[in-house]
Design goal:
Belongs to the SLC43A transporter (TC 2.A.1.44) family. The chain is mainly alpha-helical and 559 residues long. Helix content is 67%, strand content 5%. The chain has two domains: 448 residues, Up-down Bundle (Growth Hormone, Chain: A), CATH 1.20.1250; 38 residues, no CATH class. A hairpin with a 6-residue loop joins strand 1 and strand 2.
Length: 559
């Protein structure tokens, strides 16, 4: 049986800790594609596309020798698999958001864990005969991406149970999602120790079953309401007891009162602090969804998120080839020693990149702290008659502006470092890339939570992710152009993406303009309230004077 919302609230810390671990091991693991790509090539996936694999060492087949050569055709095909998986990892959020707003996170989380287990089992099965079953990798990464985003997306509602630290917990969830790119590099370390790739996948599939069990036992059917949407009721039970005195025979009646506190989501009401959007028919529970979609803030956020997503996904898909070019410098006929060095350097730096993904667990709460900055000063203190020091709506926007400016500055910094032809310097770009991945989703989630009604959050986030994923599909033709026409040189593509990433500053620019309008409206509202208060005091004074004059006149008449 699923627990009630009140029971889930008592278990919220257990659910938060396990959600972080589950996100780390089972959510966006495809983002560690560089390490998975090496293992897939070693296992012979799509190696039959390479002519050199027809005969190796005196006509001994690659299957018998265990030695597989790679080629551009193989890398393009496998990168297509990464493109499909990463697309589903983001695009599936739109239908998931709609379904989660309607049915809650529990069924989606159960479905996601089952899909992830199935994907690992399918990869393990395909590894038994990759020459015939290589095509299964496309189905496997599709289920892997879909299952991973189900686990990630459902965990984003859990921070609603944590009040004023909601953005910090949300950032921790996003940090664990972003850090899941470390999982495949960790798996590669186990693989390099001699453990069979198939055994690793089967064990991983079994562990995903534990995620299913944890969700089945601890996650409620209802959605987690936001703190402002929670209502508490007290149920009082009266029970009577009858007691007879054995000595006197008198009968006594006693009553026992039991008080139970219950928690539930209260009915949605129109949000007075929501952005003033185009008018339209109001739906029950707040402003219409169409108004939220057509608002300038959402449209500007689409531009920022789409550009950032393309920049991030392209680097993750093309990282191995970029690192290889930094070693060979595009030599059309590299020596065997240079090829060996390139392979070693790519393996080392891809492991470093994967290990640095754990930084997301440290950097994402930082952006969450920025999003929660001075929010406690916006709370109304019931014991004090004074109003809160800061307006909650304006403070949320101020925090979002700071967060997006920092994130866009880091994205531009990443693009500049990518232009430097130096391999050790790229470690700095790994760190910045990790920070951007964690920051940008926290910024978007915090902005939508600040501006739009809570019942629109899931669908808006899903729509933004889907549109960003569609735009990020451009990474596949960019990769083909880089390894084909440009001979592996990423310079011109990096330069184009660096220029395009400057568009990210348009969103905080509009937010500054919108905040100025809100502050002006706030001042005008305060002036109107002050004028109304003065008018009420004047009317009260006039009534008092008229009453005093009337009483004085009546006194004279009586005399």
């Amino acid at each position: 049986m699923a627990p009630s919302l009140a029971q889930a609230y008592r278990r919220r810390w257990w659910m938060a800790v396990t959600a972080v671990i589950e996100n780390l091991l089972f959510s966006a693991v495809l983002l560690g594609w560089g390490s998975l790509l090496i293992m897939l090539k070693n296992e012979g996936f799509y190696s039959h596309l390479c002519i050199n694999n027809e005969t190796v060492f005196s006509n001994i087949s690659s299957w018998d020798s265990g030695i597989w050569h790679s080629c551009v055709d193989q890398e393009e095909m496998l990168n297509l698999g990464f493109t499909i998986g990463s697309f589903l990892l983001s695009a599936a959020t739109l239908p998931l958001g709609i379904l989660m707003d309607k049915y809650g996170p529990r069924p989606l989380r159960l479905l996601g864990s089952a899909c992830f287990a199935f994907s690992c089992a399918m990869i393990a099965g395909a590894a038994y005969n990759p020459e015939v079953l290589s095509a299964l990798i496309f189905i496997a990464v599709s289920f892997n991406g879909f299952g991973g985003i189900c686990l990630t997306f459902t965990s984003l509602t859990l921070p609603n149970m944590f009040g004023n630290v909601r953005s910090t917990i949300l950032s921790l969830m996003i940090g664990s999602y972003a850090s899941s790119a470390v999982t495949f590099p960790g798996v590669k370390l186990i693989y390099d120790l001699g453990v069979s790739f198939r055994v690793i996948m089967w064990v991983w599939s079994g562990l995903a079953g534990l995620v299913f069990l944890n969700c089945f036992l601890n996650w409620p059917v209802e959605s987690f309401p936001a703190p402002e949407d929670i209502s508490y009721t007290k149920e009082v039970k009266l029970s009577g007891m009858v007691m007879d005195d054995k000595v006197t025979g008198d009968r006594f009646y006693s009553h026992e009162t039991t008080m139970e506190k219950k928690m539930a989501a209260k009915q949605q009401e129109p949000d007075p602090s929501s952005e003033q959007l185009p008018t339209g028919e109001q739906t029950q529970g707040g402003p219409p969804f169409r108004s939220s979609v057509c608002s300038p803030i959402f449209l500007w956020s689409l531009i920022t998120m789409a550009m950032t997503q393309l920049r991030i996904i392209f680097f993750m898909g093309a990282m191995n080839k970029i690192l290889e070019f930094l070693v060979t410098h595009g030599d059309p006929h590299p020596s065997n020693d240079l090829l060996m060095e390139a392979e070693q350097q790519v393996g080392f730096y891809s492991s470093v990149f994967g290990s640095l993904q754990l930084l997301c667990l440290l950097t994402c709460p930082l952006i969450g702290y920025i999003m929660d900055w001075r929010m406690k000063e916006c709370d109304v203190d019931q014991s004090q008659p004074e109003p809160p020091k800061r307006d909650r709506k304006i403070q949320k926007l101020t925090n979002a502006i700071r967060a997006f400016i920092i994130t866009n500055f880091l994205l531009v910094t990443f693009g500049v470092i990518q232009m430097i032809d130096n391999l050790p310097v790229q470690i700095i770009s790994f760190i910045v890339h990790t920070m951007v991945r964690g920051f940008v989703h926290s910024c978007a989630g915090g902005l939508y939570a600040a501006v739009y009604p809570s019942n629109h959050f899931g669908t808006l986030t899903g729509m933004q992710s889907m549109i960003s994923a569609l735009f990020a599909l451009l990474q596949q033709p960019l990769f083909v152009i880089m390894v084909g026409h440009l001979g592996g040189d990423p310079y011109w593509i990096n330069l184009s993406l660096l220029i395009a990433s400057l568009a990210g500053f348009l969103l905080p620019g509009y937010l500054i303009y919108h905040r100025r309008n809100l502050m002006r409206e706030k001042v005008e509202e305060c002036e109107r309230e002050a004028a109304n208060q003065s008018e009420r005091e004047r009317q009260t004074l006039l009534q008092s004077e008229n009453g005093h004059t009337k009483n004085h006149t009546n006194g004279h008449l009586s005399n």
